[in-house]
Write a structure and sequence with these properties.
Distance between the termini: 16 Å
Largest sheet: 8 strands, mixed
Number of strands: 21
Structural class: alpha/beta
Mean pLDDT: 94
Strand content: 25-35%
Order of helices and strands: EHEEHHEEHEHEEHEEEEEEEEEEHEEEHH
Helix content: 25-40%
Shape: globular
Number of helices: 9
Low-confidence stretches: none
Radius of gyration: 21 Å
Length: about 375
Amino acid sequence: MARPSDIIVVGAGIVGCAVAHELARRGASVEIVDERPVGMGATQASAGVLAPFIEAREGSPLLELTVRSLDLFDSFMERVSAESGVAVSYRRTGTLDVAVTDAELHALRTTADVLARRGVPALLLDAQAVRAEEPLIGDGVIGGLQIDSHGFVAAGDLTRALAAAARRRGAQLIERGRVRRITRSNGDMTVETDRGSLTSNAVVLAAGSWSGEIAIDGVSATVPVRPVRGQLLHLGWTGTPLRRVTWSGRCYLVPWEDGTLLVGATVEEAGFDERTTVAGVRDLLDAVCDLVPRAWTAEFRSARVGLRPATTDNLPVIGASAVVPNLMYATGHYRNGVLLAPLTAQLVADAMLENKIDPMLATVSPSRFGEL
């Protein structure tokens, strides 16, 4: 790919804003276009958990991606805060993954063995040690795994900080413009929106669950990204807070400095339906109260919903189109958009601006889904 001088990023979620900031930081002229305000798609319903060793398993390419991206987070956060002038809540206080069945406890032991081989600090706990570490945990827990390198970040604030930092570098933000089509003519790329057309040298498609809804001239297939609904609860907490992110097979809990608690998240194949539902809220309330009985006295503040972009192999789609020159994909991050944002931005900027193709791109290339 020839180095483009100006680039349109389609999508103002965490991935799109991270990519836009990195491109602008390296000197590209960038426009960000989205029909929603910054971070108001799937990002606004993200708890911002940074925990690669909970969901990604040994031997999975996703584990290598997420671990590598977590290693970038400290410097990434320092840079974004400095360039945006925005303080974003970011904590590496670890996670406590708990088991309530023998099968879950066996899985934690397996993970502990994997982490030991990798030299990652982790502590396998019995039931008594779990309650010593987290006194609010209910009686049903029989063991746990504490991983100190994990953490969480305020995803919405981070996304807005990335957008602000990109704008300080000269990027322009175009809101309320839904992208309908991407075309190429005479070497230029055109992005057609409800508010008119934009022209550039290159385009990054980072539209999350809506990436497959955008027509691309010359590409007969669509990127196979589908929406998976996730509902999240925001609770007001009283009394002693949880010490760290707590994870179980039914829910995860993120304690914030302001005394509130995020409880997530459902996994629902509901298409583009963005409603919060009675069933979703009830399932999460039952799960959190079973795990931490004191949650019955919490204040119910709100429920949020987001459509997470999933692929059939649960890996993101990152890389250049094999069909349309100067079109780059950065989508399909599913539940790991926040965690993978620093690495995605780096991979995209390296490829577009330095013609540096990281070997990891072979794993997440759009070409694994055909002629995209």
